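Exam review. A common question shows you a sequence with its structure tokens and asks you to describe the fold in words. Practice with the pair below. Do the first one on your own.
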Amino acid sequence: MKEIVPPRAQKIANAIALCAAAHGWATVSKADVESVTAVESDAPVQLPSVEVNASPVATAVTSPKFTEPVVDTPQTVDVIPPDVYQAQSATTLSDVLRNTPGITFFAGEGGGANRTGGDSFYLRGFDTSNSIFVDGVREEGAVVHDVFDVGQVEVFKGPSPENGRGGTAGYVNMESKLPQAGAFEDLQNLYGFGAEGSRGSERATLDLNEPLPASPVAGTAFRLNLMDQEGGIPGRQIAENNRWGVAPSLALGLGTPTRVFVESEHLYEHNLPDYGLPATALPGFAPAALGLYSPDVNPANYYGFANYDREQVTDDAFLARVEHDFSEQAKITEQIRYDGNRRYVEGTSPQGNATTPAGDATLSHSIYDTTNDILSSQANLKSSFDTGPVKHDLSAGFEASRETADNPTWAVVPLGAAVPSYLVNIYSPDNFPPALVNYDPHATGTRTDVRIDTLAWYGFDTIKLDPQWELTGGLRLEHYDVDELAITAASPTLAAQNIKAATASTLATGATAAVAAVPASDVELGANRTTASWKAGLVYKPAPDGSIYVSYDTSVRPPGTSGVTNTLSSTVTSADNPLLQPETSVNYEAGAKWSFFDERFLTTLALFRSVNSNVPAADPVSGLVDQTSNQTVQGVELSASGKITSKWLLFAGYSHLEPKVSNEISTNAQGLTLPLLPKDSGNLWTTYALPHGFTVGGGLQYMGETERLQATQAPTATTFSNQAPAYWLFNAMVSYAVNKHLTLRLNVTNAGNKEYIASLNNNGYRVNLGAPRTFLLNAELKY
């Protein structure tokens, strides 16, 4: 594969030069920053208060499609501000999402590199990896979302019609950092280290914001975010996560009726990927009848070929936004956003399956290559007006987008299986084999190309009948057109062959079945449909600081719009079959929200029932496929977030979920459930500012037992474990403000050094253990 990264030395030199320039620019308005500090400082020694979000509890989401503050929005919405995740030294979206209950992470498909990268997670038992948005635009591809350029993370739970096609669980939106009126700079250096035998990691970030008063356009400001990270993965040998990013942005007209924002972002990853341990290394996961359990395996062992494996990801984004205030009651926003990413990974993953000899591990070696692009245009009008005694807050708009995905198929051996297998000793795997048998990586000529065109119109209105009663509702009409071209290259008949050994000198063991010849073919599939989704809610405000509500929301997920590749399927029971009707979801919710302490602290209680209908399934008697089945999750969720006092921050949540699955979907004799759904989960994070510049904090996370997949038959004697046990994690933090500019912070994650399973893949053959006790040292310099 062609190298797609500039020389690292040049990149680091550029970052140092920019940091030096940033320090010089900041002197223009340090007096302004210090005046802000004097007003807002609560401790004798305190950092200047120049965060993107000055308040530790968000009162509103960033999307213009919402017209009311969070306390008056009849829906479960968790807003995670940077005050929380920066204090935790979180670096990725997955790290941030651990601050909301009901989310679990998964390790991908059976063994290949597909779906094993990026932020892949389930929310309330439904795959939500394809419902990640940045500035209200869908983010495509299985990529890691670094938060160095993210100002706020918002989690909307339950079906929601705001962004079009979507699943039953909801979606996640990230707000980009854009220029502000005040000057500041924030430089952080983070060093992490953990268990013996794993390599430490280093990370540096810069957030620079500078007004440009000499500009001919009033209200001009420039912002620059930089990030550079390299090093190992806590608790893992050999594996590496390396990435860097740059995000410059410019604003014109800040503080005027017309504002223009332009931003670009470039992110590059070059990793040595890690896919965890074979399940046979853990007690109770391999069937006892097979005798495959291998005790005392080093949990830090790396099961890959470090001199062959690699992962390269490039992600480029561009945003242009114009906002114009006609008056205090009317505002229009026009936004164009492009995002394109390519992920190329050659990876090796362990497969501790039933045919693996005891004491060995089967390794699966594969190549995955995909390119995703999306270009979106959004126009929105927000208006407040009266019709007689009734007040309206209206949001209406139009969206158009084009998404493309290019997915070529690769093989790593000539005229052989696309995913060959190798055997290594489970206790001392050979991570640097001098050669792989028949190694010849090449694109086979088979590929799938997808294009999705979408046009949508929407309108949402909040009607204030009087100071105590609000009626909210809206409709989104969306027309989508999916076109897919699947090209299959011809391949000859493949005879049964031995499983290849890990090195050329090791004897081959095992065998594979013969594979029939495949003729060349071009298959075109398409889906074209107009869908409607809507929502309605009634809010009663017994006091200005609180609300009691009921709501009904819907969403639609058409065929060909799920997963990282958005491909259609000819499988009769697949929801992506274009001959089937779209899956539809509804959410019934009742709850209460209340803010305290001058709106610094928000509490929420919600009861909900979400139903996903039109799920395709084969009748267990006739074998015919219909769409009368459904999946249901009902439960309760509680949250509390904000500052109880000026020194005490608390961010907490808990959810209890009860799933129900139609019998037609599964005949599992042990009962039916949804995959990766914890019946109980919760999180808590709190910090308290002490005298003399010290701040202490800590938190806990609880994850209930989860099933790795929705079983379609009763377990057999050779079935690997279907469960990930429940676990508790404890984290701690202490920081010291040396002066008003410099703060030192120590985070200890998994302070109890709990060994737990963070994720399983869908056949149970491999597991990813969570990071052991890890120390994160951070030095933060602010002006």
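Now try the second one, then compare your answer with the model answer below.
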Amino acid sequence: MPVRTHHIFGRPHEGALDEAAVRDLLADAQRHRARVAALPFDHVVTVLGRVRAAFAPGGPLHTELLDRLPGEIGFSREMCALELGGLHMALSEPFLEGKARAEWGRADAVDAWHRRPGSPLLQRAVPRGVVLHVASGNVSTTGVLSVIEGLLARNVNVLKAASAATTLPLRFAEALAEADPDGGLSDALAVLVWSGEREPLHRPFLDTADAIVVWGGDEVVATYRQGLGPQGRLIAYGPKVSAALYGAEALTDEALAASAAAAARDVALWDQNACSSAQAIYLEDPTGTRAEPFAAALASALDALADTLPMGALDLHEKAEITKERELAVAREVLGQGRLYVPSRPGRLQAWTLMLDREPAFGLSPLCRTIAVKPVRDLAEGVAALVPWRAYLQTCGLAVAPARLGPLSDALIAAGAHRVTRVGEMSNGAPGEPHDGVFGLGELVRWASLDAPDAAERFDGAGLVGAAEAASRSWARRRRLVEGLLPLAPRWRERLAGVRLRSEADWLALPLMDRADLTAGTPPASHALLTCGEGPPDGGHWLRTGGSSGDPRLSIYGFGDYEADMVRAARGAWAAGIRPGERVANLFFTGDLYGSFLSVNRALELIGANAFSLTQTAPVESVLTCLRSFGIETVVGLSTNVQNVLAHVAEAPAGIRVRRVYYAGEPFHEAERHRLRETLGVERIASIGYGGVDAGPMGFACPACQGNEHHVHDDHVHVEILDPETGRPCAPGERGEVVITSLNRRVMPLLRYRVGDLARWLPAPCPCGLASPRLELLGRVEDLVRLGERRVDYAAIQAVAAALPAIASNPQLVLADGEALTVRVEAVDPAADVAGLAGAVQAELRARVAGLGAGPLVVEVVALGGLERVGRTGKVIRVLDRRSKP
């Protein structure tokens, strides 16, 4: 028995296999399955991205394979280059994520419980376990592509390589081991080589494997179907045939050259060895005048491809089959039933074979670019000719006018076809496209559901994830972000070149982003922070911040990015208490590229609430009429606007009952909460979530959260609280600057972005039982004001204002030359004694706020709504710095 090379769970293995060795291998596979199943989706994508880099065109591995594969699998060097290009694309992050999202509904379906649209239950995809992949020898990447799907689904995969095509799968396994030094993913792959005809080593898999994926002929499929145990699932991709159909409108003189070129490509790719390769072409030729011009044009196109994409070397059997087919075609030509076209150039005599055959019945081709062109009166006759092959029919290329596309596609699907595609694209595919009538990635998982009282009370399954697992996923996502996505943006391409994150120390060494970076790296200034190149993304939302902390900054969200944000926004609204069917008045700001109203409405839609789109600009009278007429008991909006509306409700409460108030932007302080409870009977006042236009949703308030406390959306952002002076991570309870990294944004991801907030970590666990970390917001970075040698904290001044029921809780600081400070506040009562109130506030400030005991201080009292605000949002401008610039 010949000595063979295998690659078993990250290590090479020499020697022939026997049944005992296979059973030992399967026992190892069972031991690996739990570890492999726990790998985050992002870790898998990151490692496969490293493998992709190893297969990069022009690299040493790519060059080696181009030298070896033609002699091993029979394709030309040019065809092998195309095959390797397809593998390189299939390992790309967009392809992998797009495939998972299309086939599972979401890319992280194997990571966590989630709600699928239309289902009341939590669901998740679960790896099958141990999967055997049986590769065919006609296209060398088939087995490797099958294994990539198995890895993406977190199975332990064993690939039986085709005996004559071992180089590529073995090199793939070696590249995987090199790309995965920790061994988590390379422990999920073994590549074995044995002869299926002489060595029946498949038997242990029949008893043990959880699934067997077979690529091959009917006999091979039957071998693995017979004796398969009850635990195993057979996923069979057996032999298939394909055909192309051209309507008369595609055969005009003007269209002929393009139609022939497309047909030639469908015949030439993989030398017709792919299941999707056309073996017959049906031409709609009712006048009998278009078949020969098309055949001549197709012959010319095939001749051209013989130079640019030459066919591989033919063996004696293939040459004999082609010769036999040509002789039959000559006989038909003598009988007036067709015509034979063959190359005439020396050295190219068997580069292709074209037979114009007036018999419509479909027949198998000997392949190797041997194609039958069959004229029919109409395409219905061509469709009928394919019906007897319905058990094997896979792809139909179709070239017809738009008005005929639907009816003919339906007819072909009814005839048994699984795919209808454009001519010239028959052997191409798209992420998430079904193969042979099934979603291959979907076949490699099983689906589980969860229906329990606690689960039913959750918006999604995020809260079911433990702290250790959440941290593992966040780390995997950050590594994927740094290695795979951020280098697509010009700003990060050089800074992160070759960076691999091995520890948190590596992470802390990465640079921070600030607001100036955001302004300089986004349109119209530049596209430096965008991963889509110099042009705009393929659709998305362009939004700007409100401008309360400087000039408005642009953020661009792809539609997928935005929807990921909205899921977290809905989670925040759900945690606050909003439920399906609830009537909610949305008083957030809209327009001028501001996104709060848009986002809240989408969150309410995801929950299933009834959204009343009033906006902040609606006249108060209109808002009151709406609350009264429709019995709306829930109001959401910026806190200042909500308080203004509720003040009018207090003056005319007849017919209005506001029970729940949810806010964002500025907090409700305890004095304000008490006033609303006492005057209006408001039962619930809570934050609808912590977030911003530039960073998206960052946190949510559970029922146990008080004041400015929020849980972090740790499946969406990575939050750090850093010492503003040293940049070191703050310990729980220490005040520091909030820095976030977006984990799900693709078009404009943020890496360690300084959002401008101050916060401190709260001790765990939260009384609500959620494992996600909690923070308490402590104001804005710019709220720490320097006046000469004095340092004044806006948050301390705000705390004083919040404790005084006679004034609103959001004061305004006005800075002037000479260390002068003016504190402006709004009186709640229009009839208040302004002078007396100013004196009382000043006394409280000097007594309770560090830095205000000495030095110039003026307190100015204005009417409610009298402070300067940001016109786009209505937020109070906290600090007005009117000092002379140096």
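Model answer, second protein: Residues 243 and 278 are 4 Å apart (CA to CA). The first strand starts at residue 5 and ends at 8. Full marks require stating both points clearly.
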